[in-house]
Write a structure and sequence with these properties.
The complex is a heterodimer.
Chain A (H helix, E strand, L loop, with lengths): L1 H31 L6 H19 L2 E10 L5 E7 H6 L1 H8 L1 H23 L9 H23 L15 E3 H4 L7 E3 H23 L1 H11 L1 H6 L4 H23 L9 H16 L4 H18 L2 H6 L3 H16 L14
Antiparallel strand pairs in A: 1-2, 3-4
Helix pairs in contact in A: 1-8, 1-11, 1-12, 1-13, 2-5, 2-6, 2-11, 2-12, 5-11, 8-9, 8-11, 9-11, 12-13, 12-15, 13-15
Chain B lengths: L6 H15 L1 H4 L8 H24 L7 H17 L4 H23 L4 H20 L3 H4 L5 E2 L7 H6 L10 E2 L2 E2 L5 H23 L1 H11 L1 H6 L4 H26 L2 E2 L6 H14 L6 H18 L2 H7 L5 H12 L6 H15 L3 H15 L4 H5 L8
Antiparallel strand pairs in B: 1-4, 2-3
Helix pairs in contact in B: 1-9, 3-9, 3-12, 3-13, 3-14, 4-5, 4-12, 5-6, 5-12, 9-10, 9-12, 10-12, 13-14
Chain lengths: 341, 383
Amino acid sequence: MDAIILQILNGLDKGGAYALIALGLTLVFGTLGVVNFAHGALFMLGAFCAVTFNKILTLEKVTVDPTQLTPWGTPAEIKTSLVEAWLGEFGKVLVNYSVPVSIIAAIPVMLIIGIVMERGLIRHFYKRPHADQILVTFGLAIVIQEIIKHFYGANPIPQAAPAAFSGTAQVGMLLGMGDAIPYPWWRLIYLFFSLAVIGIVFAFLQFTTYGMVVRAGMRDRETVGLLGIDIERRFTVVFGIAAVVAGLAGVMYTPVLPPDYHMGMDFLVLSFVVVVVGGMGSLGGAVAAGFLLGILQSFASMNEIKSIIPGIDQIIIYLVAVVILLTMPRGLMGRKGVMED
Amino acid sequence: MFGNLSRQDWVMFLGFSAVVLLAPILFQPIGAAYPAILEKFCIFGLFAIGFNILFGLTGYLSFGHAAFLGIGSYAAVWSFKLFTMNVIPAIILSIIFAGIFAFVIGFVSLRRSGIYFSILTLAFAQMSYNMAYSVLTPLTNGETGLQLTLKDPRIVDAMFITPGTGLPRSTLFGLEISGGGLGGFYFTAAALIVGFYISMRIFRSPFGLMLKAIKSNQNRMRYTGFNTRPYLMAAFVISGIYAGLAGSLMAAVDPLAGPERMQWTASGEVVLMTILGGVGTLIGPVIGAAIIKYFENIFSGFNENALNSVFSFLPDTLRDPIVKLLSLFVGEGWSLTLGLVFMAIVIFLPGGIMEGVRLLTSLFKKGGNGNKPAVSGQTQPAE
């Protein structure tokens, strides 16, 4: 029983990342009708927002102190963090919490990147075939990835979670089951964070007038346009929101997985599978499929299962995708008439 | 038998063969006349031709074609290890295996179309890649890749030849294929020419016409009573076999096979080659493959020192920023250039280089009024 709960939890945090990326992908597809292969790159850019923010916070001023000598006999270099020098104790706290704090920086950055991308490139591809959209965004993804590689190098850059959350949580205690189920705090936080973001996006679409217009536009953009609403502008904002969601997923994921330049591509392939399994254009489907596939993947990587079917953990997601696509042509919750061909 | 090829086709075919066969002389001025790179041109050209039979004719965008390339390579290396260093059995084995895999994957994937088809092929390719990387290590030797060893049985060879010292080279009845000689190039060139001829016959045949009809309006084809599935299956298997053949040639000129050949970036590369050259054209994919492999070779060889010497005629203040900027795009940054070119082609010239050539020639023929016939290629079905 413990093992099962642990595996479900393990799956949920990865599923959270899948769900967030898939949510953005679906949002873009549902509104703009564009298949965005560069969405993984947005996830990666978010992660590198956290890296950059951390770098800025830990900028150091190096002073040479001739009164102190290093063991090699040269004057000692004393490094003082600028942030700590200016802000004192608060600066230390800020460095410690750099990952969650960088969310504040990431939101405007990702929003701008998303809007520029939509205005600059994607909007010219609304009327082009899906194959062209796939190809141009694929090219864009390569470009973004290579630029990041040029500036940050090819190696993963580990980011630390805040010290208070770097330990493990005794989930069993929290659930009142007595038995200890050790589970990293940060991953638990990631799970709640992703649920919160998903909740906010759904609430925005469901309970605000703006969201209502967007939903109406997803159903029938011509009619909404005829009512005198500038639907294009709203869709641009939606693209920006999708970019922010992907970016936030990336920011918070950095302590779990040290970001490198190709993490976007790795997640994109899986997220596409998630979107297709959930059903093209269905937001709920994307979220459900994200968590479902995350959990399945973590169960498949249990040793007991691997000893029965070796290698199942490597292919389970794709296998599930193939089975679902063949038995349920529209995915789990796909609407009729969306991307039937 | 040769009825459905026009005189123009024959001229194109003969010209193509001549250029390919004379490549070691013709490509001398651009510094690409050594066998290693010419072999790459031929192999990737063949791969792209095969991909174009599926994507160019039927419009089904497969994102998992590298899987067949990898399977072809593994099959060929196993044939070298188990039976003989002769390349003919290796190629036959590769074709058989790639064909079987293409049949199975195609049977499942072709039940869906559009983006679902792309995702399904991608899923299968990633599955093959992941399995080659992990579970199938006894068969694929995992990350290291499958290589020849001195302890391989080589049953057939052992009966006739006493093994020399060192690793044997792949041969075609005595002619050395691997090892970087011209023999390897002419062998791949012959394969390319045969592959090109077959693809030309397919393009001009009623079968090819049927595939084009599926691309322009599959529903209408179904209404008129055609079952489109067998045609699509055939196209998929043929293009899978081309990929398998390319994979086996890759193993023939350099007998090793690794899982990275099956990764989805490799599938993306062949899509790129086809798009760059011109989707649905005969020669386009070969040109695209050659251009990409050529520039990959040139660009990734450049570094800052080389750039500095190229721009040495400029004053320092001007040279440094230029070198800094250009060094982004060469050497390690070659992928960046590739991505940018890819985007530019898709945005400005969706028909690829062949479309550009056609626009230019019609511009000269009709004196500035040449844009019109180029558009007529994409007719909208009347509703």
